[in-house]
Specification:
Elements: H1 2-13, H2 15-31, H3 45-56, H4 61-69, H5 72-75, H6 81-99, H7 102-106, H8 113-130, H9 133-147, H10 154-174, H11 178-192, H12 194-228, E1 233-239, H13 242-252, E2 263-269, H14 272-285, E3 287-288, E4 294-295, E5 308-313, E6 319-326, H15 327-335, H16 339-342, H17 350-366, H18 373-384, E7 388-392, E8 398-402, H19 407-414, H20 416-420, E9 422-427, E10 430-432, E11 444-448, H21 459-462, H22 466-479, H23 481-498, H24 503-506, H25 509-519, H26 524-533, H27 538-566, E12 582-584, E13 592-594, E14 606-610, E15 616-620, H28 624-629, E16 636-637, E17 639-641, E18 649-658, H29 663-673, E19 677-685, E20 690-699, H30 702-713, E21 718-723
Parallel strand pairs: 2-6, 13-15
Antiparallel strand pairs: 1-2, 3-5, 4-5, 5-6, 7-8, 9-10, 9-11, 12-17, 14-15, 14-16, 18-20, 18-21, 19-20
Helix pairs in contact: 1-2, 1-3, 2-4, 3-4, 3-9, 4-6, 4-9, 6-8, 6-9, 8-17, 8-18, 9-10, 9-11, 10-11, 11-12, 12-13, 17-18, 22-26, 23-26, 23-27
Bound molecules: manganese (II) ion (MN).
The site of manganese (II) ion has 4 residues, from loops.
Amino acid sequence: MEERLIAMFTERFGEEQGKLMAEAIAFASRVHCNQKRDDGTPFITHPLTVASYLLDMGMDAPTVIAGVLHDTVEDGDNVQIADIEKMFGREVAFLVDGVTKLTKSGKQTYVTKKQEQTENLRKLFLAIAEDVRVVIIKLADRLHNMRTIDVCTPAKQIKKSKETIEVYAPLAHRFGMGAIRSELEDLSFRYLMPEEYENIKAQVDVQQKERLELLSSAMEKMKELLKEANIEGSVSGRPKHLYSSYRKMQRNNCTLHELYDLIAIRIIVDTVTDCYAALGVVHATWKPLPGRFKDYIAMPKPNLYRSLHTTVMDEHGIPFEVQIRTKEMHATAEYGIAAHWMYKEGRQSMTELDRRTAWLRQVLEADQDAEDSKEFVDNILKDFLGEYVFVLTPKGEIIDLPVGSTPLDFAYRIHTKVGHHCQHARVNGNVVRLDYKLKTNDVVEIITSNSQPGPSRDWLSIVKTQTAKNKIRQWFKHENREENIQRGREMLEEAAKRHGQSLTILMKPEYLADVLKRHNFATVEDLYSAIGFGGVSAGQVLHKLIDLHRKEERLDELKKRFEESEQELPKKPVHRANPKGIYVHGDPGMAVFFGNCCNPLPGDPIVGYVTRGRGVSVHRADCKNVQSLMQEADRMIEVEWALDEHTSFSATIRVFIEDKPGSLMEVSKVLLSLNVNMTDLSSRSTDDGYAAMEITCTVTGAEQLKMIIANLKKIKQVIDVFRV
Ligand code: MN
């Protein structure tokens, strides 16, 4: 294997490079000499195989050499990137570093495996953005590991397969490497869903055999027809990949029999003109199925896949798919970005290469401030490695966006400034709403205006891509901190008001410290600012504050109850009660009524005010109306509770509760169990998923009310309860 690799390498890149290759192999053999693969073979077979894959794919010399060395820094006890650079040059060293995990070289310690994986992916994506050859080495590495995974433990098989299907197969797809993608998918599929895999494999085997027999005559005929038409080309049957068939069946909810392209015939010709000529021949001989013709030559897929697809019927009425493409298109379809090196002299230009990694640089641009690796990696996985639609700029350039994207996502993908100043959007010539969901083949035009000073805050809930979201957040963060602080403060105040809470009570230093720590903010201004630009929701902060406050209240209550139980029961009031249960000092006979403003209850500290002609109005000592009444100090009069057990009072409480079915029921149940007589109950929904209930009930005094409130607060769905 070693000799073959050196011989082929030398033949392609010359003697001098060949020597370097031999040195690389010798070095890697030394580093890995004590290592074995899971199947017991010497470890060195792995990097050598990876290098031979890279050579077969037509990669350049530094990439193939890096393939040989790719595990030396990660696995070697004492090998540094600097050593590689000294021996094999900067380029090779960079490529090796790009595929090397952080753990060893960086000496970081991670809290979780997941976090470690995330950090490694982030490093990998950054390296790919700088040099796309990194992804090709990484995929060749993964391909060999997956091809030999049957000797690993089941746990490792599942772990590696999961990572492959979530990250590496989509990456291969992203870079147009169709052959590697399909193989990675099929290999992972086998370990992740063994039953489905076996099931579909058995079906495909039977069907492919049947259909290949049926199609062999069609293929023979096709070869003859091409010859007659003077078109140079090869015709072959193309077996369908298992995982993509499985996905298609799931997506379209159909059986294997209904997949037209289970067997496709592939025609590979020399020129684009020949592609269309061959298509003409096919359509003249077999009847095309309407709606099945796709011209990916005129309109390549975002990953630059080009080909003609059509589905026709054979003489027995059995549909089959035909794919027509040039050799170069075929190489691009199979090897994707790697075909750039294969066709270096051809049409593939550096700009095309740049375009293939433009999306990665976009994420980098949007995330320049993101310190959170998880967010960064998630953004890439969600925005770029998931399902996408592709849309067109008015100039016909293809832009791919995740399914569910809006014109705003499109605008931000074009350029950050286009996003910020987007005024409206046209799709296929018609003005659409900014939350319009883009569809494949939509032609999207963004109209910008300088009178649109910047993004609007509700855009955050419209855009689908993380990159757009981050760009909008950043605008709010950087462009107007002062404004954000102001706005954040207002938003929190509004939220408090909506929930009938007072921020002065909730913003206790010890509660705030807790909230700041939780969100990693240094100052209250930072918190306000984050609320202002949408990084943190006001409701979230408020509920945390309420929660902390409630906890403290509960503690106080317990403490008080404990203290009370230590004391003797207080003596019953000695004064003679008037019908309202109030004793008026100095004039017990005076008529008494309660202020509507504060509805005092027995137990509340109270004061009296002598009105003109209507007797004494009784208020809670802390009633805000009392403050103004105090100006007429001579009319204030001392009053005191004087009760017998039959006096009862009306009290209103407000309950904030999650607006869910059953919430109201829970409240009623508690009141019923406490034997509370309700005289009025109303409830309305607030716009953020909560309901505010007002309950008026009859109580014997402040103690009973407190007890009711305490019991209501124990209900899971209840956010807060307080006396009105
Ligand atoms: Mn490896």
